[in-house]
Model the fold of this input.
Amino acid sequence: MIKIAPSILSADFANLERDIRLVEEAGADMLHIDVMDGHFVPNITIGHPVVKSLRKKSKLIFDCHLMINNPESYIDAFADSGADIITVHAEATVHLHRLIQMIKDKGKKAGVALNPATPVDVLQHVISDLDMVLIMSVNPGFGGQRFISAAHQKLSKVRSMTQELGKNIDVQVDGGVGLDNIYDIAKSGANIMVAGSAVFSSGDIPYTIKEMKRLCEKL
Ligand code: DX5
Ligand code: ZN
Done:
């Protein structure tokens, strides 16, 4: 069963509580929270104080995608603010193993994200410690970009790695996911679909989330 993680990057930032309730009632499985620092990516979004405020408003799983430099300095803050899953970029640290342990020591689920140009081989010696791998299917920084098709091969590779391990590790995909391509993406091995613009700009959030799930049912 695939899971849908709407990205609040495409929500109305002046009405976050309303928009989060909309996706929660529409059957979203988790909430994808894009944290950008203007350094690791060329955009700035929200930080842990916003996560802390939203935590009081929603029971959804908070899936925090940190697109920031020096992620080591912010793990405690995001964990203490109510993140359930903390995903860090392999490209943002020279001590990936230590960073993963920091997240796990806080009792949170740990994810590692890979930019489109980063080979999946970097995961080889850490994947057994992970709860989730995030394959970026756009260059991070903005919503509404086109899905980069090379992500299919990366998703299949990561899925094979998790199957070889025999461990229940989620494979998440982020960027350019919509009704037109979600089935093929699921077929390649992703089981958690991040969708920003496809959900929030659809005009009918409940329909879009249900349709995304229905399209993947035949797998
Ligand atoms: C991009 C973010 C994504 C973004 C996806 O850097 O990590 O989560 O919100 O947006 P869409 O689904 O519109 O491509
Ligand atoms: Zn994201």
